[in-house]
Write a structure and sequence with these properties.
By secondary structure, this protein is α+β, with helices and mostly antiparallel strands. Helix content is about 30%, strand content about 15%. The chain has 12 helices and 14 strands. The protein starts with a strand and ends with a helix.
Length: about 350
């Protein structure tokens, strides 16, 4: 039986049990956290950072969480909107003039956050090496035409999301999204989450382990092998290369669950938090091929907002229960990847609904 480290309130014992079962099954190393009213009632981890299972996952182990990173980028945009520095109903071109090319003059900032901008991919094939050049990939997005009428339908912007929203943040603040996040969010909260990772943290990074089916699914621009390189960690790919653990993911996103303030640090007003629920699309996402409601950067369901990362990581914010649940891991799974995070999530709900 896997040994679980950390602390877990008695009431939430089922969460530790879920992580144990996961680590005894498909997982190699993982961490899980539950925050209620901004306090960590669960902060646990276990397993190993390597496929050979020789090095234990420690308290401060971090890992690439893939698209769970998008929730951090969306939060930055919501903070700027709440401050009055970014208008979500403004044309993107008001901040990024070059973006108006090819009929995109009426694309709004909210279209970027809601995956309705019509720029889900680049017109020409992209490689991992291309992603390391911010000016190159953003210039290409600014120059191309949308694939559909912006705002008319939803289509998941899997990698472009971070460059699109990130460039707007950079134009507004004069700082990259990674730097803005570090200085205005992670730093004040004391959260160990990074968009662009300094070399000093490399020794704490768990190696991502490819799914049994291979390094990446057909059609993916990047794979696990790319994410395990120093080049990937050093750059900012703000849709998919954030590094953290369940504790830091949950802490940051608890800002929304708690009306904008966690640990005495206020980042948003209550009204600013509520803007996440401004629905941008409801229907079948034309890229994902499944029903979804997109809000301001998050998937919506009832009074929760959430998103997860390729292979299985997840964070969910429940506004009514003032609860945040997070899970991250290093074993990537394609088909059943979210079974592990959903088991942690359901265990957390067992505790609060019992």
């Amino acid at each position: 039986m896997a040994e679980i480290q950390g602390r877990c309130a008695d009431r939430f014992g089922a969460v530790a049990e879920a992580l144990t079962v996961s680590l005894d099954g498909d997982d190699v190393g993982a961490s899980a956290a539950v925050y209620v009213d901004g306090e960590a009632v669960v902060d646990i981890w276990g397993g190993y950072v390597d496929a050979a299972r020789t090095v234990a996952w420690e308290r401060d182990t971090i890992v690439n969480v893939w698209s769970t990173t998008k929730t951090m980028v969306a939060l930055c945009a919501l903070i700027l909107a709440d401050r009055g520095e970014l208008e979500l109903d403004a044309p993107v071109a008001a901040y990024w003039p070059e973006f108006a090319a090819a009929g995109k003059q009426d694309v709004l900032v909210r279209h970027l956050l809601g995956h309705t901008a019509g720029l889900p991919v680049w017109d020409e094939p992209i490689t991992a090496a291309d992603l390391y050049s911010w000016p190159t990939v953003t210039a290409r997005l600014a120059a191309q035409a949308p694939q559909w009428e912006p705002g008319s339908t939803g289509g998941y912007h899997s990698i472009t999301f971070g460059y699109l929203v990130g460039e707007v943040i950079a134009r507004v603040t004069g700082r990259s999204v990674g730097r803005f996040f570090a200085e205005e969010v992670a730093g004040p909260l004391g959260a160990d989450f990074h968009i662009g990772l300094a070399a000093e943290h490399d020794h704490r990074v768990a190696t991502l382990i490819a799914a049994p089916e291979g390094d990446k699914p057909e059609g993916f621009e990047v794979g696990v092998a790319d994410a395990n390189t120093a080049a990937w960690r050093r750059t900012e790919i703000p849709a998919v290369n954030g590094h953290g653990n369940a504790r830091s993911v949950g802490l940051v996103q608890s800002v929304l669950a708690c009306g904008g303030t966690v640990g005495g640090v206020r980042l948003l007003s209550e009204a600013g938090c509520a803007r996440v629920f401004e629905e941008q699309f409801r229907g079948t996402d034309r890229i994902l091929g499944q029903p979804i409601r997109w809000g301001m950067g998050y998937r919506l369901e009832s009074r929760t907002c959430s998103w997860g990362g390729w292979g299985g990581s997840l964070v969910l914010v429940d506004f009514d229960r003032r609860m945040t649940v997070s899970y991250v891991m290093n074993q990537v799974l394609w088909d059943a990847g979210y079974d592990r995070s959903l088991s942690v999530l359901m265990a957390a709900y067992e505790a609060v609904t019992a």
